[in-house]
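hey so u asked for the seq, here:
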Amino acid sequence: MIEMEPQTPLFKAVEENNLDLIIQYAPQYAGVRDLDGYTALHRAILSKKLECTVILAPYERTYLTPSGISPMFLAESIGFLQAIGCLQDPPREVAHIRKEDDEVARLHTSTQLDHQLALLKELLDTKAELEQARSWNAELQGHLVRQNTSYKDTEASNHDIGPSSANIDTCVICLDRPRDVVYLPCRHFIICEHCFTASRLSICPLCRSPIADTIIILR
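ran it, structure tokens below
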């Protein structure tokens, strides 16, 4: 009979999206259900935490709730389609293959594990890229604050600012609204959000490199 507990370190790690602790506690607490009958994998799926789901899938993908809900069925029912691949049941496929050839079964299992590890690495790389983007955003925010401070100091000391100075922080397209869109990966900061949306640009007007993403600077 599967043990049921209100909370375990594994459930807490999933709640906090702590991947290191999930890896540490998954072998020890695999199969434990909470008071609602869910495993840690069910909870990760309900929260649509893909990294947690990938790590927990090999341990708990075959566990059902008391009402018979499998992790695969739960993911499909809430539209969490990204998790379907890692929630398929390789053990059932391996059992079928082993009847024909044990060596093929071992190779199949190894391929499945390699695929899951590659998927997890891709997810972690994406997470690192997002952290880098946040760091760029923070740097740009700081640069904007310093630029505005310098502009105000200049304005206070000289009321007769020429047109070229007045327009230094305005959009290069409309020459009216302030710049607030940063292109990635080139990081050029030359256009306002309104003109970017209206023009539907796919390349940077300054360096002509493709625009993969943008960061909106909040003033």
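Residues 91-101, 160-166 have pLDDT under 50 and may be disordered. The CA atoms of residues 45 and 75 lie 6 Å apart.
lmk if thats what u needed
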